[in-house]
Amino acid sequence: MPDIVETGSGGIDFENWICPMPLRDSPTIVMGHGGGGAMSGELIEHLFLPAFGAAAQAELGDSAIVTVGGVRLAFSTDSFVVKPLTFPGGSIGDLAVNGTVNDLAMAGARPLVLSTAFILEEGTALVRIAEVAAAMGTAALSAGVALVTGDTKVVDAGHGDGVFINTAGIGVLDPGVDIRPELARPGDVVLVSGEIGLHGVAVLSCREGLEFGTTVCSDTAPLHGLVAAMLATGATVHTMRDPTRGGLAASLNEIARAAGVGIALDESTIPIPAGVRDACGLLGLDPLYVANEGKLVAFVPAEDADRVLAAMRAHPLGVRAEIIGRCVAEHPGMVTAHTALGGTRVVDLPAGEQLPRIC
Length: 359
Description:
Blueprint: E1 5-6, E2 12-13, H1 38-52, E3 64-68, E4 71-80, E5 86-87, E6 90-91, H2 92-105, E7 110-121, H3 126-143, E8 146-155, E9 163-172, E10 189-192, H4 198-208, H5 224-231, E11 239-241, H6 247-259, E12 262-266, H7 274-283, E13 297-300, H8 305-313, E14 322-328, E15 335-338, E16 344-346
Parallel strand pairs: 7-8, 12-15
Antiparallel strand pairs: 1-2, 3-4, 4-9, 5-6, 7-9, 10-13, 10-14, 11-13, 12-14, 15-16
Helix pairs in contact: 2-3, 5-8
Pfam families: AIRS (PF00586), AIRS_C (PF02769)
Domain PurM-like C-terminal: 185-331
InterPro entries: HypE, PurM-like_C_dom, PurM-like_C_sf, PurM-like_N, PurM-like_N_sf
C-alpha cells in the first residue's frame, strides 16, 4: 500500500508515493488504465483505495452486497464510452443496460432498477441521442428492469464522443445465494456459456472498417435469466463473472488471484467462432483477451457440473456452453492453457487492453 502524504494546502503529494510501476512511470492517465487489466487494478489499489481511506468498503467484485432492512441487495455502477455508438448487433444504449444487469447477475442477484446518466457532447444531433435512448428503453423492457432516475450533463464540443452513459443498478439476492470470486476452490469445473470474442471483434470491425468475410455481431445480452436457470438446478455455484474488458483471460486471472487457486484450461474446448478466430489471426490478437458482453464464466463443484451445463444449454443464451477447464491446487493465482500442440502456456493478466473503448 503506498504512503500518501498530504501537502500543506490539503492536496496529496504524489512525489512521496512508493507504489510500483506503472503508476510511478506514468504520471498521467493512459488508455491502459481503463482496460480492466493489471494497470486498472494498480490504479484502484494504489491510488483510489488509499485516497478513499476508511470510506472505502469494497470487495472489488462486479457488485457490492449490502443489507438493508434484512434484505440483501446487490449494487453496481458502470460507465460506457464505446466507440462507435452503434455496431453490428447493438449500440451504447443496450450495452449500458445489459452491462449493469449482468454485473448484478454475476452475484446471483435478480436485477430490479437502474439509474441512467448521460454526458452529451455539444453539437451532437438530437436524433442520434434519441436512437440511443430508445435502445436503452427497449433493452430495459427486455431485461425486466425499470429506469427509475437519471441525470444529463453537456460538455463542450470536442470534449466527448457524442454520448457517454453511466448506469447504476440494484438487485435482490435470494436467501442462501453467495457467489464471489474468492469462493472458487480446487476441483471446481470451469464453464463458459458460449462463443467468446464476438463483441470486441464486432466493435473493432465497425470502428476500423474491416471485413473478415462474414459479419461478426456483438453478443450483448442480459444474462440474469441464464443465471436463474443455473441456480434453479439446486447446484452450488461458487463464482461467476462476465468476461468483458480484458476478455476471458482477465476474468479468470482475477478469480485465480482472489481465490488463491490455479486454473488449468483446455484450449481445444473453448468455443471460438470462425469469424473471431479469423479476425484475431489476421490482426495478431488472442481471442482469450477479446471482450464479451453476453457471456459468463462459472465455477461449480465437479459433482454439479453436468446438471449446470445441461441447464445452460437448455437456455437460449447458453446453447454453446462448454466445460473449458478446472481449478487446481498447483500454481495458485496463475492461469494456464493446454494447447492444441500438446504444450502448456501461461494465460497472464493483460497489462491494459488489446481493444480500447469497446464498452
